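hey so i finaly got around to running the thing on Kinase from Melanaphis sacchari. pasting the sequence first so u can double check i didnt mess up the copy paste, my clipboard has been acting weird all day
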Amino acid sequence: MAKWLDSDDLLPYDNQVGGHKFTKEKPLLGLLKHKEGYILKSVEGGTKGKNEVRFYEELLKNESLINLRKLVPLYYGTVAVQINSLDMTFIVLDDITTGMKKPCVMDVKIGSQTWEPGCSEKKKNDENAKYTECKEQWSFCIPGFQVYDLSSSNLVQPQKYDKEFGKSLDPGKVISVFKTFLNFNSGYLGLEKLVQSFTAQLDHIRRYFQTQKHYHFYSSSVLLVYDAETLKNDKNTYPLIRVSLIDFAHVTPADGKIDLNYLQGITNLWTLFRTQLLHNN
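ok and heres what it spat out for the 3d tokens, dont ask me to read them lol
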């Protein structure tokens, strides 16, 4: 891939549900989509951006991390783009919604602690003030999601729920939010296999974090993605789903210790699917 890309070949990424949105006024934030299908994530200034690039580079080169590499979107390196006369660097990633006609996407931020050790008191206080109740009860929170509601007559655009929705979400309504995301009211035969697939993928991630001692992940998310169009398939066909780990600006060395903060969150998410959603539609 070329070192420099033409900004005319880039558009805001429509399927982004969490984090900052890209605008011409704030080009240092958000995601872009290249005409060839890649996702471009802007490299933040300071240590955060360098930390995320370093994580992806090590993941690409270190064969001992091959199992972790399989859990994240494919990484193609970094590219430079000039926007508003500003030279910017972007991380280039695979778009995991590729091939989906009606991509439903949920960003689930994992862990009750979303600030990394050594950060400022201000950062710690700011993070503790966000999604407080959900993080305390579930050890995860939902910064945003989009869903094509199959029970609605309007399927041209997805319904979007942003971070303000997530910040005000009552922990007692988290299960109903997942049911909304999964189209529980649609009545389609593919729903049971959809939940089975997500449960199995989350269990795979959970099992990995039961033993991994390479990194501790703070303010990192699991991205749940499925194609609502494939829910209409017959009961013997599994809907198209993908699950990926994303957002690694606050990853730290594990120093040989299990990431208990992340493990608790991913375990709770898997348990929710297994006990509250599986066989309950």
